[in-house]
Amino acid sequence: MTWASTWAAAGALALASGSAGAAEPDASRASGAAAGSAGRFPDGFVWGTATSSYQIEGAVSEDGRGPSIWDTFTKKRGTIEDGSNGDVACDHYHRYKQDVRLIAELGCKAYRFSVAWPRVFPTGDGTPNPKGLDFYHRLVDELLANGIEPYATLYHWDLPQALQDRLGGWRSADTAKAFANYAGHVAERLGDRLKTIFTINECGRFVPFGYGSGIDAPGLKLPQAEVNQARHHVALAHGLAVQAIRAKARADTRVGMAENITACVPAIDTPENIRAAEIATRELNAGFLNVILTGQYTEPFLSWAGTDAPKFTAEELAIISAPVDFVGLNIYAPQAYVVAADHPPGFQSLPFPTSFPHMSSPWLMLGPEIAYWVPRLAAKVWNLKDIYITENGTSSEDRISPDGRIHDLDRVMYLRNYLTQLQRAAAEGVPVKGYFLWSLMDNFEWVFGYKQRFGVYHVDFKTQARTAKLSASFYRDVIAKNALRA
Ligand code: NOJ
């Protein structure tokens, strides 16, 4: 399992034509002098953990929740490696108080969770189900009572099945409208206590995997033109939701998205390669982040897509690019090591050697430097003022030792190295405001079922016992010091 489709697109575009002028690297960020000193993060840096509804909640038929596309998908034979599903998952729906205590014990002051759309609107739109939103009222209250700020994502892939059946899911712009209606409803009802909202999580994953390769729900294998159109509808959904949230929420509500940005790194740190990595960051994220942040599909993107390019109107581009308050970036693995090219579009992505190191998930290549380069390049390319790392973490074998403990040294190594690079970015003035570790606890890892564990708390899925791993102690220590070193 890899991020193959994204990579294929990256490779194709890297070799495609288009022109881009050279520019100076950002001199204000050139000095690393402050970075090495104390390993400290800026005052007020937000430390959190992240989860999502289908991956942890369980209780899929309770209190009026409607079925989602993941309920349907997981019940089909051969879709999930261990044949499992999210029916029970971490049983968080019933154990949320205990789980909030786990967050508090880490010292986190923020928690990123997702709201399950089919709990709130069981058939996607129409009459809302008050009992569904009640759960999030209880969760938000519990978080606030424990001094933890709620950060809510509205779409983490659990589309109401009714919208898939009725409209073809994201193949239809009407799904975007239904999403905006749901977003406005949540913002209105929770807006007195919920101040930070992410619209969409990882369009760059669920569109190609759900509509292109069929690996994720709804399991479709559509031609590229339809995949591009679905992505456009998701971008439209984001823009319409931003508008709906602004219309319905309190004035101090902040809204943005959480995207698995294609992570580019200059292969060798020269001014020419850094400029090439900026171009690559824009072009390899042209289908979602760039159109949201600039209101344009770029020329190289459109010429690469050719007749498969999405159909759009100027009015839609204006909606899609409604101003956001921040950008959330999910970063795990490097995806493009870039060098300058004297042919358009001005960069070349180098092929990965098969010996490139990876974590226990084969797709999760180890590249701590993305935690420096990705926010730095994104801030430069899109002139961003507020960036959150909305996900970062790794799976690990997580064997329980005879002493009952989980010594996940590989996860600690991974986190230490990524956080070192993130601290370097912050110390150089890149506007990174917070970090959400994926994940609070082991959970349903989509096509891998429960085989890949990403939590800093181990979950025994037979007993639902939670046990802190070594990485939980590591993270607690970093948070307490707001620094990597004493
Ligand atoms: C990103 C997704 O948002 C999350 O749901 C998933 O579990 C992690 N990556 C790890 O693969």
Describe the structure.
- This protein has helices spanning 4-15, 53-56, 69-74, 92-106, 117-120, 130-145, 161-167, 173-190, 203-212, 224-248, 271-283, 286-294, 299-305, 314-320, 370-382, 409-427, 470-481, and strands at residues 46-50, 110-114, 149-155, 196-201, 254-259, 264-266, 326-330, 336-340, 347-349, 387-392, 432-438, 457-460, 465-468.
- Residues 1-36 have low confidence and may be disordered.
- The protein is of the alpha/beta class and 486 residues long.
- Helix 16 (409-427) packs parallel to helix 17 (470-481).
- It has an 8-stranded parallel beta barrel with strand order 1-2-3-4-5-7-10-11, surrounded by 5 helices.
- The protein has one domain (6-481): Glycosidases (TIM Barrel), CATH 3.20.20.
Brief summary:
With 486 residues, the chain is of the alpha/beta class. Strands 1-2-3-4-5-7-10-11 form an 8-stranded parallel β-barrel, surrounded by 5 helices.
Quickly list its features.
3-stranded mixed beta sheet; 486 residues; disordered N terminus; 17 helices; globular; 14% strand; TIM Barrel
Helix/sheet category = alpha/beta
Supply the CATH class. Alpha Beta
Contiguous helical run count:
17
- What name is given to the CATH topology? TIM Barrel
Q: What is the strand arrangement across the widest sheet?
A: 1-2-3-4-5-7-10-11
Name given to the CATH homologous superfamily? Glycosidases
How many structurally independent domains?
1
What's the topology here?
Blueprint: H1 4-15, E1 46-50, H2 53-56, H3 69-74, H4 92-106, E2 110-114, H5 117-120, H6 130-145, E3 149-155, H7 161-167, H8 173-190, E4 196-201, H9 203-212, H10 224-248, E5 254-259, E6 264-266, H11 271-283, H12 286-294, H13 299-305, H14 314-320, E7 326-330, E8 336-340, E9 347-349, H15 370-382, E10 387-392, H16 409-427, E11 432-438, E12 457-460, E13 465-468, H17 470-481
Parallel strand pairs: 1-2, 1-11, 2-3, 3-4, 4-5, 5-7, 6-8, 7-10, 10-11
Antiparallel strand pairs: 8-9, 12-13
1-deoxynojirimycin (NOJ) is lined by residues 52, 55, 201-202, 330, 391, 438, 445, 454.
